[in-house]
Amino acid sequence: MIIIFVAIICSVSPFFVFSQPQESLKNKYAYYLRGLLFIENGDFNLALKELNQAKMLDPTSISIRLKIIYSLIQLGEFSRAEKELKVIKKIDPNNPKISLVLSLLYSFQGKDLELEKEYEEFLKLSYAKEPSNRQIAENLAQFYIYKNRYNEAINIYQEIVKNDPEYVDGLFWLGYLYEETNRRQDAIRLWELALKISPSHALVLNSLGYIYAEEGINLDAAEEMIKKALNSEPENGAFLDSLGWVYFKKNDYKNAEYYLLAAYNLLKDPVIYEHLGDLYIRLDMPQKAIFYYKEGLKYFPKNIKLREKLNMYGSQNKVIKK
After folding, report:
1. Whole-prediction pTM
2. Are 322 and 313 in contact (CB under 8 A)?
3. Helix, strand or coil for residue 126?
4. 3-class DSSP state for residue 10?
5. What is the pLDDT of residues 93-119, one digit of tens each?
6. What residues pair up with 161 in beta bridges, in sequence order?
7. Nearest of 179, 227, 172 to residue 195 by alpha carbon
C-alpha cells in the first residue's frame, strides 16, 4: 500500500516552478530541496520542518503539501495528513489523484465509510476526465454494482456497449444488471447476442442456461450450455448449481440432487440452499428441506426467500408437508 501511495504522490506532484521574486524563490527552493533530502534519508521530522517553511512561502503549492503528507503518513500522523489533503482538494477540487490519495489514507485509518465516499469521488472525477476510457468506466460501474446502485451501473454499461457492441464482458454485465432489475427478456436478448460473438464465454453460458431453466424453456439447450461452462471451470459451485437446477426443471431429480449437493459442498450461496430445500420438498422429504432452509438462514439471515420457504414448510418444532 505504501508503494502505491508513493507512486501516486510522485504522479500528482511534478517538480514545481516558482513564479515569485527571485529571493523568495531561492528560499523556497532551498527549504524544499532540504526537505526532499531528509525524506530520502528517512528523517521525516526534519523533512517536515523544512517543508513547512517552504509551505509558509507558498501555501498554494500542491507539490509541497504532498511531500508534507507523505512525511506525516510515514510518522503515523494520519489526522494531520488528512487535514492537509482536504486543503489540497480545495486548491484543486477536480484532480482525481488527490481523491485517490485521500481514499488510501482512509484505508490506513480503517475509515471505511469515508474510504468508499472518497473512492467514488476519485472514480467519478476520473470518468469525467476520460469518459471513453473503458477501464475507468467499468471501475465506476462495478463500484455501483457493489453498492447495489444498479441503474447508475446500467447507464455506464449501456454507454460502454454502445461504443463497442462486440465487447462480450460488457454485454454480460449489462445483461446481469437487467436481470437484477427485472428486465429478464432484455438480459436474455443480450446474452444470446453475446454467445453469437463468443460461443465459449463461460459466464454467459451459465447465466443464459440458468435463466432458461428459471423460465422453463430451452432446457436441453440450457443443459448443454452449462455443461460447456463447466468444462472450463469444473469446480465452479455456481455452475454446478445451475446444472442441478436444469435437471430439477426436467424432473430428473437424481441428477438434480447430485449437482446441487456438489455445489453445496463448494459454495455458500442462499440460492443453493433454497434449491436443495425445494428439491426435497418436491421429493416429499420436508425435514431435509427445512434443514437446508435453516442452514441457509444461518449464513444469510436477511434472505427473504429462505425465510418465506421456512415459514411455509415448517418451524422449529413442527413440520408442515407441502
Report:
1. 0.78
2. yes
3. helix
4. helix
5. 888 888 888 888 888 888 899 999 999
6. none
7. 172
C-alpha closest to that of 138 among 119, 153, 118, 120: 153
- Residue 232, C-beta contacts closer than 8 angstroms, at least 6 positions apart: 200, 202
Class of domain 1-118: mainly alpha
pLDDT at 15 over 70: no
Q: Pseudo-torsion of CA 240, 244, 249, 250, nearest 10°?
A: 110
Q: What cell numbers appear for 57 in the block?
A: 512561502
140 alpha-carbon distance from chain centroid: 9
Task: Determine contact, residues 54/28, Cβ cutoff 8 Å.
Answer: yes
Helix/strand/coil for 306: helix
- What residues are paired with 314 via a beta bridge? 319
Query: Residue 258 and residue 269: Cα distance in Å, rounded?
Result: 17
Three-state secondary-structure class, residue 235:
coil
Report the chain's terminal Cα–Cα distance, integer Å. Answer: 55
**Cell triple for residue 263?**
455445489
**205 vs 2: which has the higher pLDDT:** 205
Residue 314 has pLDDT above 80, yes or no: no
Set of cell numbers at residue 302: 436477511
Beta bridge partners of 4: none
| Alpha-carbon span 248 to 256, nearest angstrom | 5
**Residue 157 pLDDT exceeds 50:** yes
Residue 123 has pLDDT above 80, yes or no: yes
Question: What is the residue whose three cell numbers read 454485465?
Answer: 173
Rounded Cα–Cα distance for residues 249 and 264 (Å):
18
CB 195 within 8 A of CB 180: no
**CB contact at 8 A, 263 and 233:** no
Domain boundaries, the chain: 1-118, 268-322
Is residue 316 over pLDDT 90?
A: no
Q: How high is the pLDDT of residue 287? A: 95
Cell output for 110: 480503517
